[in-house]
Design goal:
Domain FAD/NAD(P)-binding: 2-298
Strand content: 25-35%
CATH architecture of the largest domain: 3-Layer(bba) Sandwich
CATH class of the largest domain: Alpha Beta
CATH superfamily of the largest domain: FAD/NAD(P)-binding domain
Keywords: FAD, Flavoprotein
Shape: globular
Radius of gyration: 24 Å
CATH topology of the largest domain: FAD/NAD(P)-binding domain
Bound molecules: flavin-adenine dinucleotide
Number of strands: 25
Cofactor: FAD
Family: Belongs to the FAD-dependent oxidoreductase family.
Largest sheet: 5 strands, parallel
Structural class: alpha/beta
Protein name: FAD/NAD(P)-binding domain-containing protein
Helix content: 25-40%
Amino acid sequence: MHLVIIGNGITGVTCALTVRRLQPAARITLVSGESIHHYSRTALMYVYMGHLRYQDTKPYGDWFWDENRLGLVHATATALNTSEKLLTLDNGTTLAYDQLLLATGSESKRYGWPGQDLAGVQGLYSLPDLEAMARDTHGIGRGVVVGGGLIGVELAEMLHTRGIEPVVLVRDARYWGAVLPPEEANLVDRQFHENHVPVRYGTELREILGDGRGRVRAVVTTAGEEIECQWVGLATGVTPNLGLAKTSEVETDKGILVDAFLRTSVPGVFAAGDCAQHRQPGAGEVPIEQLWYTGRMQGETVAHTICGQATAYRRGIWFNSAKFFNLEYQTYGQAPSEPTPGLSSFYWEHASARAALRVYFQAEAPHAVMGFNALGLRLRHAVCEQWIREQASVGTVLAHLGAANFDPEFARQHEKAIVADFNRQFPQLAVTLKQRKGLRALLREAQEGFSSPR
Ligand SMILES: Cc1cc2nc3c(=O)[nH]c(=O)nc-3n(C[C@H](O)[C@H](O)[C@H](O)COP(=O)(O)OP(=O)(O)OC[C@H]3O[C@@H](n4cnc5c(N)ncnc54)[C@H](O)[C@@H]3O)c2cc1C
């Protein structure tokens, strides 16, 4: 069996390593137009900020691929002929496959703004983007970042660490309004404030102005403001990279359409990770998942199917994490940004505005816990998942909060205050001393038994 994988991101590489384990004799070839070796895309910002060198972002040494008999081809696949099972590469060669995985990732979205093709206007997705950003922001005074999501805040931090003033345009009335409730968004806003990053909420990009020589000079916002700048970062989302799939009869919509086994419409061709669109996502799941950890899960799942062990993809309980300047963020399960019928939430915030916890739970008995948001404190993935899966009551969770907390010092310091706050806000559900009794044993179990995903 010759498995060809297009894309050496987390999805493609996880699939390759899993197939190597399941079928030691398989021939496996990874094709990537971006880089010969796999690197960690989520670490791009740290290279710009000087915290890591490019070689530090490679999880495996360059010897690893030969050692594991994984063929590497540094080229872009420009055409796919599924009836002949043949790929055309931009280096003038062709590549035949028995089974094919499309793990082509995403590309930055552009909305047709006037001036979006000027020099100094870009998204941040790939190594060439990083190089362009390093080149075009060298020695400049101000950059405008368009978009109030995770990449927007990363771009702002990146510019800030190089002494460049970022101005951030956020469409919503608050930061990441579609995901964060107002209280959590306020904490992120404080990070912007403390780092002297001006943010224009409720404001979109209308137009990018050039300097007459093809370079960006300013942006005009929907509020009519003209902001002078020498660079514009577009962080308004990504879209599946369909370039190769579109040259073939593989069925696409917004992404490459796949069934529960990550099979495309063409036998022997699979798609996974950012580029895949699930025809029938599970309840509460989205059809296109553009996350590092879901890419890894899909890569592992599809490898089993490729090796003849048909396995349906199940994402399980939602999880995500990020960092907003100095504020770490984790979310688990159902954590809507707006009040939702049938769901209550308890919110605690430390007086420093550097730590907060929100616990979502059923409004009606048995008040099962449905989700968490944590800012500035680290929760244990396995514990939170278990509580959600087993529908633990909010009382049980609050009584045993220490079991979920990574930072024992923090737990000792703040747990009492969190429980007291909960008892004040929800006297009818007040956590009793008796409920808290088993805490020590649980803490011990957590420290011994659970391991972190990060
Ligand atoms: C700056 C940044 C920060 C991020 N931070 C986080 C985070 O904190 N947490 C999180 O969960 N997610 C994060 N993400 C998203 C996460 O990185 C992606 O979801 C994940 O990398 C997708 O993996 P993938 O393997 O599916 O695709 P990719 O990593 O995009 O890999 C696809 C590869 O295929 C190559 N390719 C495409 N077409 C062809 C072709 N025709 N021929 C050859 N090669 C081709 C591409 O060049 C690319 O190298 C971040 C993304 C970015 C850009």
